[in-house]
Amino acid sequence: MVPGRVNRLVIVRHGETVGNSRIRYFGRTDLELSEEGRAQMRAAARWLGLQPGTPGFAPVVASPLRRATEGARLIAGASAPIVQIQEFLEVDFGRFEGLSAEEIRERYPVEFERWNRNRLDPAYNYPGGESRAAFIGRVARGIERMLELLDGADATVAGVSALIVAHRGVIRAIVKRLAEIEPPVIELGSIQILARTTHNPGWRVVALDVTEHLVGLV
């Protein structure tokens, strides 16, 4: 490991929220974690503490929304400094915000069908919200900021890993841009791990959508 370069990236999706993010689409709504979500983040911290190469985190990065920043604190520790990256806000779902898929289908049947056909198409635009192209471009700018932090951090201070706690859409965009793989699911509380070597600037996938630490949580 070369000081000044972090070569391991742990990316965690925030836990369940008080708004029931398991079934509802929340983008810009600033929800807190539920007690279940806090338990998921503590479980992620325990699992990561047992893995080689993750004795600590520096830097710690999060979306500015509370469900992500609180998750970062629960994993990295209450005293860990958190860098909030504005570009890592979740996509703006527009009129779909806060609705379940069934509610979207009932209220906006035409838009629902178009969404199902094209939701990952860069040309798709959430009605009254953000386009996929604008979202991907925004997250890409955040990734550049994050990489500057990773390349300028002292990897000998807290460990060899950086931590990001963010949202499903953001995580999908990060992994696809860095490792050229699109995670299929990304459950609440799941863990993704990417790595690079000192001789290769490219990132490779170590783990995707790890959820074993969530088994048995109430």
Describe what this molecule looks like in 3D.
There is one protein chain. The protein has helices at 35-49, 66-76, 101-107, 109-118, 132-152, 168-179, and strands spanning 8-13, 57-62, 82-84, 161-166, 191-197, 200-210. The protein has a six-stranded mixed sheet. The chain is built from six helices and six strands; from the N terminus they run βαβαβαααβαββ. By secondary structure, it is α/β, with parallel strands linked by helices. The model has no long low-confidence stretch (mean pLDDT 90). It has one domain: Phosphoglycerate mutase-like (Rossmann fold, 3-Layer(aba) Sandwich), CATH 3.40.50.
Task: State the gist of this model.
This protein has 218 residues and is α/β, with parallel strands linked by helices.
Count of discrete alpha- or pi-helical segments spanning 4 or more residues: 6
What structural class should be given to the helix and strand makeup?
Answer: alpha/beta
Biggest β-sheet description: 6 strands, mixed
* Mean of all residue-level pLDDT scores: 90
Using only C-alpha atoms, the radius of gyration works out to 17 Å
> In CATH terms, what is the fold-level topology?
Rossmann fold
Number of domains: 1
Tally the beta strands. 6
How are helices and strands ordered from N to C? EHEHEHHHEHEE
The amount of beta strand, in percent, is: 15-25%
For this structure, what is the CATH class? Alpha Beta
For the largest beta sheet, what order do the strands appear in spatially? 3-2-4-1-5-6
By CATH, the superfamily comes out as Phosphoglycerate mutase-like
CATH architecture: 3-Layer(aba) Sandwich
Low-confidence spans: pLDDT under 50, at least 5 residues?
Answer: none
State the distance separating the first and last CA atoms. 39 Å
How would the global form be characterised?
globular
